Amino acid sequence: MGSFLFCYAYWASFDGNEECRNYYNLKLEKFENQLSSGLAKYSFSLANFDICYACSLQHVNNNRSKDLNN
Questions:
Q1: Has residue 26 got a pLDDT over 70?
Q2: How many Å apart are CA 58 and CA 65, to the nearest integer?
Q3: Residue 19 CB contacts under 8 Å (≥ 6 apart), including other chains
Q4: 22 Cβ partners below 8 Å, 6+ apart?
Protein backbone atom coordinates (compact mmCIF):
# COMPACT_ATOMS: atom_id res chain seq x y z
CA MET A 1 0.00 0.00 0.00
CA GLY A 2 2.88 2.36 0.73
CA SER A 3 4.09 2.59 -2.86
CA PHE A 4 0.54 3.25 -4.05
CA LEU A 5 0.17 6.18 -1.67
CA PHE A 6 3.63 7.51 -2.44
CA CYS A 7 2.86 7.50 -6.15
CA TYR A 8 -0.47 9.22 -5.62
CA ALA A 9 0.99 11.87 -3.35
CA TYR A 10 3.79 12.54 -5.81
CA TRP A 11 1.58 13.04 -8.86
CA ALA A 12 -1.34 14.68 -7.10
CA SER A 13 0.93 17.31 -5.62
CA PHE A 14 2.82 17.74 -8.88
CA ASP A 15 0.36 20.34 -10.15
CA GLY A 16 -2.78 19.65 -8.10
CA ASN A 17 -4.19 17.71 -11.03
CA GLU A 18 -7.83 16.94 -10.18
CA GLU A 19 -8.18 14.53 -13.09
CA CYS A 20 -5.20 12.57 -11.89
CA ARG A 21 -6.61 12.29 -8.36
CA ASN A 22 -9.97 11.13 -9.70
CA TYR A 23 -8.28 8.57 -11.93
CA TYR A 24 -6.21 7.27 -9.04
CA ASN A 25 -9.22 6.94 -6.75
CA LEU A 26 -11.16 4.99 -9.38
CA LYS A 27 -8.21 2.69 -10.08
CA LEU A 28 -7.58 2.09 -6.39
CA GLU A 29 -11.24 1.31 -5.73
CA LYS A 30 -11.36 -1.11 -8.66
CA PHE A 31 -8.13 -2.78 -7.57
CA GLU A 32 -9.32 -3.16 -3.97
CA ASN A 33 -12.58 -4.69 -5.23
CA GLN A 34 -10.62 -7.17 -7.33
CA LEU A 35 -8.44 -8.05 -4.35
CA SER A 36 -11.39 -8.59 -2.01
CA SER A 37 -13.22 -10.76 -4.55
CA GLY A 38 -10.07 -12.66 -5.52
CA LEU A 39 -10.12 -11.35 -9.08
CA ALA A 40 -6.89 -9.36 -9.04
CA LYS A 41 -5.09 -10.46 -12.18
CA TYR A 42 -2.11 -8.14 -11.92
CA SER A 43 0.63 -7.88 -9.38
CA PHE A 44 0.48 -4.93 -7.03
CA SER A 45 3.55 -3.36 -8.60
CA LEU A 46 2.07 -3.57 -12.09
CA ALA A 47 -1.11 -1.85 -10.96
CA ASN A 48 1.01 0.77 -9.21
CA PHE A 49 3.05 1.36 -12.36
CA ASP A 50 -0.13 1.78 -14.40
CA ILE A 51 -1.36 4.54 -12.09
CA CYS A 52 2.00 6.33 -12.05
CA TYR A 53 2.32 6.13 -15.80
CA ALA A 54 -1.20 7.33 -16.52
CA CYS A 55 -0.85 10.26 -14.13
CA SER A 56 2.52 11.27 -15.52
CA LEU A 57 1.15 11.08 -19.05
CA GLN A 58 -1.79 13.22 -17.99
CA HIS A 59 0.56 15.81 -16.55
CA VAL A 60 2.68 15.93 -19.72
CA ASN A 61 -0.40 16.24 -21.93
CA ASN A 62 -1.82 19.04 -19.79
CA ASN A 63 1.42 20.99 -20.04
CA ARG A 64 1.60 20.42 -23.77
CA SER A 65 -1.91 21.74 -24.32
CA LYS A 66 -1.16 24.77 -22.13
CA ASP A 67 1.92 25.49 -24.26
CA LEU A 68 -0.10 25.22 -27.45
CA ASN A 69 -2.74 27.59 -26.13
CA ASN A 70 -0.26 30.28 -25.13
A1: yes
A2: 11
A3: 58
A4: none
